[in-house]
């Protein structure tokens, strides 16, 4: 073994330690870079030289530069992050729906219904009082306007939610395209047995985002590319990318662009928003429609057969509907039997059109109709919505609707808290493997610096040995 081989050993050692310090410096520089995974230089003993008397090592070699990443921790984090994104989206939407009703309130629908029936009760005590009839008319107008307002606000929330779905799908399509491009670059870069660490970091960050939006699954292929599935349907596979679109119907659907088949089982924030516009808002709206329809039909059933008195001396007349209905109703039902369509009847122009007397009244002092309408406050009605048929008073039905919404909103808030905690814990576990600790990096730099200095010292020793040989040869 020659002195030159010793010099080569020292040189390779200095080169390896220099590369290690460079990688440590890269880690420190990217300590706060989102998605960056710390990298390590893998050092191994160089191939030895074999002599008759044994093998002698030839120093150190750089086996490769690897990044610290755990696929299982990535999968766990993405699952929990998608759950947190879905829970947060549901919590936000349900809180906004709850704010529409604003119960308990002195000006909400419960108060309006109570005031409406109380006005009929007051009229039954003084059936000829024009002021009391005006109060009845105004109270009915308030109930109708409150229901109109609720329906309008729910429609606006639904539209806002659908816009959020379109924004999410646009983001998913952009991420899918970028992942497909990175798949191609990674496969090309790693075709010579190298590792494209920085490209993989970029792709993993995009995978975190797309799975949070879709609740999708990631599958890595042997060539280094990945596939992303949402609802069991492929979104990205190697360089093949499928674009998604929102079908803005009722119910809305997520589809492959240009197709008519819905993709089922999408999760993440997009899945939660889809559920809001598919289930939550339509269910609440259907219950409000059931309440409005029940109110219109029962009040009209009594009022349209009642008797009005006007003039002096009073002249009896047949009362019309209290609330407006379309005759004949359009195909699919009467829109005036909905929370959005409920209106006072156009024939209810003034106090004289409000009937307090019953069908068989002999004089204006009769209060049969007013009393029957006041008793509707405690009359159980059969009300049917998409959630099923319920027998309850109008006030109790609305109270149950608001109570169910409050329970769902609280559950969504609790779920969001739990899921966010799970996602945070999963991210912490992942960061413990892939995150950069500047203290650890500085310690490693010092260790590699000492190793570099030792190798440099070896060069000096070899130089002294060569000087000794030259002197012996003179």
List key phrases describing it.
58% helix; 4-stranded antiparallel β-sheet; 474 residues; 2 domains; alpha+beta; two-stranded antiparallel ribbon
Overview of this protein structure:
The structure is a single chain. With 474 residues, the protein is α+β, with helices and mostly antiparallel strands. The protein has nine helices and 14 strands. It folds into two domains: 3-68 and 435-473; 75-189 and 271-421. It has helices at residues 3-29, 71-101, 109-125, 130-189, 197-214, 268-303, 368-374, 394-434, 438-473; strands spanning 39-45, 49-51, 54-56, 60-67, 217-220, 226-230, 233-237, 240-241, 244-247, 253-256, 307-310, 315-318, 381-385, 388-392. It is rod-shaped and about 150 Å long. It starts with a helix and ends with a helix.
Compact description:
With 474 residues, the chain is an alpha+beta fold.
Q: What's the number of extended β-strand segments?
A: 14
Oligomer: single chain
**Can you tell me the overall shape?**
rod-shaped
Helix-strand makeup class? alpha+beta
């Amino acid at each position: 073994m020659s002195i030159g081989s010793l010099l080569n050993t020292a040189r390779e050692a200095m080169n390896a330690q220099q590369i290690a310090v460079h990688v440590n410096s890269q880690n420190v520089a990217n300590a706060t870079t989102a998605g960056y995974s710390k990298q390590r230089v893998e050092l191994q003993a160089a191939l030895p030289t074999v002599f008759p008397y044994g093998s002698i090592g030839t120093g150190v070699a750089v086996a490769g530069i690897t990044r610290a990443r755990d696929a299982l921790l990535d999968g766990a984090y993405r699952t929990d992050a998608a759950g947190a994104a879905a829970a947060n989206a549901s919590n936000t939407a349900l809180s906004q729906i709850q704010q529409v009703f604003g119960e308990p309130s002195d000006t909400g629908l419960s108060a309006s219904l109570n005031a409406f029936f109380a006005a009929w009760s007051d009229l039954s005590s003084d059936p000829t009082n024009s002021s009391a009839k005006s109060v009845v008319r105004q109270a009915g107008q308030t109930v109708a306007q409150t229901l109109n307002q609720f329906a309008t606000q729910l429609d606006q929330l639904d539209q806002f939610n659908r816009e959020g779905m379109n924004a999410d799908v646009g983001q998913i399509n952009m991420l899918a395209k970028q992942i497909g491009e990175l798949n191609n670059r990674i496969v090309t870069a790693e075709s010579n047995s190298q590792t494209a660490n920085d490209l993989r970091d970029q792709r993993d960050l995009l995978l975190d985002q797309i799975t949070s939006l879709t609740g999708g699954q990631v599958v890595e292929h042997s060539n280094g590319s990945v596939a992303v599935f949402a609802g069991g349907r492929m979104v990205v596979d190697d360089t093949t990318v499928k674009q998604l679109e929102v079908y803005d119907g009722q119910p809305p659907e997520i589809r492959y662009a240009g197709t008519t088949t819905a993709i089922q089982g999408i999760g993440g924030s997009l899945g939660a928003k889809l559920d809001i516009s598919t289930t939550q808002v339509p269910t609440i709206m259907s219950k409000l429609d059931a309440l409005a329809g029940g109110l219109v039909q029962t009040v009209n059933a009594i009022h349209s057969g009642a008797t009005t008195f006007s003039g002096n001396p009073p002249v009896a007349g047949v009362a019309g509907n209290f609330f407006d209905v379309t005759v004949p109703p359009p195909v699919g039902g009467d829109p005036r039997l909905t929370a959005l369509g409920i209106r006072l009847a156009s024939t209810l122009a003034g106090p004289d059109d409000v009937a307090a007397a019953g069908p068989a009244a002999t004089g204006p002092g009769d209060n049969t109709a007013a009393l029957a309408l006041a008793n509707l406050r405690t009359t159980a009605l059969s009300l049917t919505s998409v959630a099923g048929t319920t027998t309850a008073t109008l006030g109790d039905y609305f109270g149950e609707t608001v109570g169910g919404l409050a329970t769902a909103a609280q559950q969504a808030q609790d779920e969001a808290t739990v899921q966010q905690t799970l996602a945070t814990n999963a991210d912490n576990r992942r960061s413990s493997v892939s995150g950069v600790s500047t203290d650890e990096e500085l310690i490693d730099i010092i260790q590699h610096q000492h190793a570099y200095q030792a190798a440099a010292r070896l060069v000096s020793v070899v130089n002294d040995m060569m000087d000794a040989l030259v002197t012996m040869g003179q």
